[in-house]
């Protein structure tokens, strides 16, 4: 059984992860405000450079969830370039 409390304590509560999450939320808010995405549309906001804190409009694009949430990985679980 998955222990969400432990997961939050060990990973999601770290200040770096909080800042990353805030950056992702900010990027989504920016595109919602400009009416490029809306709630429930099945789209994700993609950061072209992979940095969730870089929310400049030139760095953001809109992609389907299936494309944004699955990447080819190396043996050490890093994203393959």
What labels would you give this structure?
single chain; 81 residues; alpha+beta; two-stranded antiparallel ribbon; 2 strands; 40% helix; globular
Tell me about this structure.
The chain is α+β, with helices and mostly antiparallel strands. It has one domain. It is 40% helix and 12% strand. It contains 3 helices and 2 strands; from the N terminus they run ααββα. It has helices spanning 4-12, 15-33, 65-68, and strands spanning 43-47, 60-64. It has a two-stranded antiparallel sheet. The longest helix has 19 residues, at 15-33. The protein is globular, with a radius of gyration of 14 Å. The chain starts with a helix and ends in a 13-residue tail after the last helix.
Question: Quick gist of this model?
Answer:
It contains three helices and two strands. With 81 residues, the chain is α+β, with helices and mostly antiparallel strands.
Structural class: alpha+beta
What would the principal axes of the Cα set say about the shape? globular
The end-to-end distance, rounded to whole angstroms, is 34 Å
Number of strands: 2
The total number of structural domains is 1
What's the SSE pattern?
A: HHEEH
Lateral strand order in the biggest sheet? 1-2
Q: Percent of residues in helical segments? A: 25-40%
Tell me the major beta sheet.
Answer: 2 strands, antiparallel
Q: What's the number of helices?
A: 3
How much of the residues is beta strand, in percent? 5-15%
The parts where pLDDT drops under 50 for at least 5 residues are none
User: Rg, please?
Assistant: 14 Å
């Amino acid at each position: 059984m998955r222990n969400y409390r432990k997961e939050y304590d060990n990973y999601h509560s770290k200040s770096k992860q909080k800042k990353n999450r805030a950056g992702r939320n900010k990027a989504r808010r920016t595109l919602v405000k400009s009416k490029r995405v809306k709630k429930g549309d099945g789209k994700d906001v993609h950061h072209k450079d992979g940095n969730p804190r870089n929310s400049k409009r030139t760095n953001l694009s809109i992609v389907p969830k299936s494309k944004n949430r699955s990447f080819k990985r190396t043996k050490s679980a890093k994203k393959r370039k």
